Amino acid sequence: MPRLQQLGPHSLTDAELARWVFGKCAPEQLSVLRRCYLNQRWDAPVPGVNPVALRRVQAWQHLARRWTQQHLQARPLLADTPSAARYLVQTLAHRPVETVLVLMLDAQLRLCHTHELTEGSVREARVYPREVVRAALESGATSVVLAHNHPSGNAEPSAADHALTERLEQALTPLEVGLLDHFVVTRSWVTSIKFGTSTATGLELCSY
Questions:
Q1: H/E stretch holding 97
Q2: Could you say which DSSP state residue 80 is in?
Q3: 185 and 95 in one domain?
Q4: Do residues 37 and 116 share a domain?
Q5: Cα–Cα distance between 174 and 89 in angstroms, integer?
Q6: Of the candidates 138, 131, 136, 133, which has an alpha carbon nearest to the alpha carbon of residue 117?
Q7: pTM of this prediction?
């Protein structure tokens, strides 16, 4: 496709790009493929679309998440906020219910392990500070980052989110384990509870 090579992917429509990836794509297939991407679910067949192409996209998404994780394991997590935000979006944004992650960091603040703590409902997931403390001690982490998604798309931290952040700091500080931040993750934004900043994910224009 000469225009893709000369002008880049921004010069093509969604349908043109989808045809380049999947070989062919009717308008009704485009909305199905969009949902597959946003939910990161490629196991259901899409009529008229090569299933091998679907598996390749699934493999690429997994590989991209793995590469981002490896990148964060080689440098301080919060030294590269866009990469940290990308990793959280890749891991959490598609979840249909609230899911809580604890990112375990070493003494150089590099990512050494990601622990999925709990899943809840569409509106909340219960987190007990003792569970975070136990996971941090078992992993040998010197600092942790907490993150959870808001399936509603509302990127604003709730009063319960702020209260949990305070309780976790109080539980971790005596153990000399730092809580670097607590993030709220949506498809559009990753919001820092401790610092009140937001990072755009690049998916804010995607919709069903």
A1: none
A2: S
A3: yes
A4: no
A5: 31
A6: 131
A7: 0.74
**Span 191-207, pLDDT tens digits:** 999 888 888 876 543 33
Kindly state the tokens that stand for 43. Answer: 């196991």
68 domain residue, yes or no? no
pLDDT tens readout for residues 152-180: 889 999 999 999 999 999 999 999 999 99
Distance, C-alpha 2 to centroid of its chain: 34
Range of the domain at 181: 76-200
* 52 plus 122 within the same structural domain: no
Strand partners, 103: 114, 145
157's tokens = 């931290």
| pLDDT averaged per 10 residues, the chain (length 208) | 74 83 80 77 77 85 85 84 87 88 94 83 70 92 94 91 93 94 92 88 47
Residues written for the chain: 208
What is the tally of structural domains in the chain?
Answer: 2
* Residue corresponding to tokens 């919709």: 207
Q: Give domain status of residue 207, yes or no.
A: no
- Are residue 118 and residue 179 in the same domain, yes or no? yes
Cα three-residue angle 100-105-111, rounded to 5 degrees: 85
At 146, the amino acid letter reads L
Task: Give the contacts of 83 (CB within 8 A, at least 6 positions apart).
Answer: 68, 71, 72
